[in-house]
Design brief:
By secondary structure, the protein is α+β, with helices and mostly antiparallel strands. The chain has 13 helices and 20 strands.
Length: 389
């Protein structure tokens, strides 16, 4: 096969890149190692920055999001024995955010690629990248036991943290930056009306979060130890512990129900540099992971795709490579800003094992400063809503 851009990874980053390139007259083929059903079963993020919302609308993907998504003006922090605090993005930036599940976005992208006749090859096994520093890179894979090859001009690595794309960059050229946190999130999904706002809860028992996916799909989390086992947490125990970490008015408003999905996610920060190697460009989780506290993971993948699609379009339309040459530096500036913000919120809102009374007081003072300072509130709102592309 022959295409202009071979995209490895059929999640939202890869599909969105293919969709935008197609709208700009650039051919692509997407390779995904899983089935479409498996991709659509992944339960991921649901809070969209203002820039993500605007981009999805700009590329013709906003109709269902605007119909089914839940706009909101920020997220609340309910701190034990303190007043409720709103990260007021609307007040300080004039920009609303949107609660709309990643699964819905992926469904919308599949529909768009199908309607346009786009090539998305699922169950592509043993994907390998070749001659990435030449002008004629190619990708090989196996489908139903048969070896196949795609010749291309560029390769986009959108295959996540465990994919083959990042591993194709020689180790001697890579720098990785990582921080693992000594806890995880135990999360459940329930088909119940969600709590009306996204709310972070800081409590002496640990962190909790009420989030939303659609009007009849709720997502709730509690901080847990890394050795926590799902079988030790039946629904009743989860709801009891979650409510113990929330203020009473919130407890009274939460509608509980049986879980339809339950999982434990460890928290970590990870950035890999460079995001380019020859004709290979990394985007999304292939290059960086942030803890979910700041709701930045999906949004960072979208901003990567924005920069990369712009660069590839410019290269084909005008034979200019300025944006391609600056892609990694441009994307990484935003990545590091989101990594810092996610790290800061994680440090602020969680209980850390073996923390000292001094560290506990510093956290409390940081929140009290946030409550008292409009400058601090404006700074947090600007970062939370998403810095401009």
């Amino acid at each position: 096969m022959r295409t202009q851009v071979a995209i490895v990874g059929g999640g939202p980053a890869g599909l969105l890149l293919s969709h935008i390139l197609d709208r700009n007259g650039v051919d692509s083929i997407v390779l995904e190692r899983q089935t479409r059903a498996h991709v659509l079963e992944r339960i991921r993020a649901g809070v969209l920055e203002a820039g993500t919302v605007a981009l999805l609308r700009d590329v013709g993907l906003g109709e269902r999001m605007d119909r089914e998504g839940h706009p909101h003006d920020g997220s609340s922090i309910a701190w034990e024995n303190r007043p409720r605090f709103l990260i007021d993005t609307k007040k300080y930036t004039g920009k609303p955010m949107m609660a709309y599940g990643q699964t819905n976005i992926t469904e919308d992208l599949y529909a768009a690629r199908d309607a346009a006749g786009g090539q998305v090859i699922d169950e592509a096994a043993n994907v390998q990248l070749h001659d990435l520093t030449s002008t004629k890179p190619y990708v090989t894979f196996e489908k139903a036991g048969a070896a196949q090859r795609i010749d291309c001009d560029y390769v986009a690595g959108c295959d996540g943290s465990h994919g083959v794309s990042r591993a194709a960059i020689p180790a001697r050229l890579m720098k990785t930056f990582e921080k693992s946190y000594p806890f995880g999130w135990l999360g459940i999904m329930s088909e119940t009306p969600p709590y009306p706002e996204i709310c972070y809860c800081y409590h002496s028992r640990g962190f909790a979060l009420a989030s939303q996916r659609n009007p009849m799909l709720s997502r709730y989390y509690i901080q847990c130890d890394l050795d926590t086992r799902l079988e030790d947490w039946p629904d009743d125990r989860f709801w009891e512990e979650f409510k113990a970490r929330c203020p009473q008015d919130m407890v009274d408003a939460i509608v509980t129900g049986p879980s339809i999905e339950k999982s434990i996610a460890p928290l970590r920060s990870f950035v890999s540099e460079p995001m380019r190697y020859g004709r290979l460009f990394l985007a999304g989780d292939a290059a960086h992971i942030v803890p979910p506290t700041g709701a930045k993971g999906l949004n960072l993948a979208v901003s990567d795709v924005f920069y990369l699609s712009r660069a590839l379009t410019e290269a084909y339309r005008y034979n200019k490579t300025d944006y391609l040459d600056s892609y990694a530096d441009t994307a990484l500036r935003r990545v590091w800003g989101a990594a810092r913000m996610s790290w800061w919120l994680t440090m602020l809102l969680h209980r850390f094992p073996d923390e000292t009374p001094f560290e506990e007081r510093m956290r409390l003072n940081q929140f009290d400063y946030l409550l008292a300072s409009e400058h601090a509130q404006a700074s947090l709102a600007e970062q939370y809503v998403g810095l401009p592309y």
